[in-house]
Amino acid sequence: MARLSGKIAIVTGAARGMGESHAQTFIREGARVIITDMRVDAGRALQAQLGDASLFVEHDVTDLAQWEMVVSKAEEAFGPVDVLVNNAGILGAMARTADLTEKDYLAVCDVNQHSVFYGMKAVLPSMLKAGHGSIVNISSIAGMAANYGFPSLAYVASKFAVRGMTKATAIEYGPHKIRVNSVHPGFIQTPMMVEATNEEGGDALSLIPLGRIADPQEVSNLVLFLASDESSYITGAEHLVDAGMLAQ
To answer: CB under 8 Å to 245, separation ≥6 — which residues?
Structure first.
């Protein structure tokens, strides 16, 4: 299996959950991967598991200077970046709009929205040097519809923003052979999803036509396709992995 042979990728929020699955999948498919996270012990353990084709970098995605450092380390270690997966994200405070504090609102937007801008801004010069690139921005079904109760206004706003930012950047950089797509997962079996559903106490399965929670690998399969040359004519699009939730 070598669908990403020769490609250099950055995956944020890679120490656990979907990001960890994306990184593992990319390594299996021949990529060299910069894995970034604030969880240092888990990130270093993942690098040890993935081997010499990976490099862990401690990284606060809300800091543009740190983004520039990550891209620099990627180029020093492996070469110009071909693939960026903006995966890092948080749910933030579960509060109604009138009860949501400014601090909590901005914290969610910093991680979920502003970091996507910083990541694209930092990596695009490297992709321009490479002469091509694929950026995959992880949004959510909450970036398509605000139907499901548990995300706050801040979460929904940030995930809708990622969808629009993806389209704008895809139009700008299509002539440079750089593709930009967004992925919109539904309920995926990750620590963040477990924390959210436990706090709300709801029955997620009742909302899902396929009647089950997804394994992170089911999202990674799509991210892999979008990162690879197999999706060479796909850009500026949103891609649902939601088991039919938004078909209702």
So the answer is: 141, 148, 186, 187, 207, 208, 209
Q: CB 127: neighbour CB atoms within 10 A?
A: 25
What's the start-to-end Cα distance of the chain, in Å? Answer: 37
Residues 207/208/214/220 CA torsion (nearest 10 deg): -100
* pTM recorded for the entire structure: 0.94
Q: Would you call 148 a catalytic residue per the annotation?
A: no
- Per-run averaged pLDDT (10 residues), the chain, 248 residues: 95 97 98 98 98 98 98 98 98 91 97 98 98 98 81 92 98 98 94 60 76 95 98 98 93
Smallest CA-to-CA distance from 29 within 240, 224, 231, 246 is with: 224
Could you say which of 105, 148, 155, 173 is catalytic?
Answer: 155
**Backbone conformation region of residue 24, classed left if phi is above 0, alpha if psi is from -120 to 50, else beta:** alpha
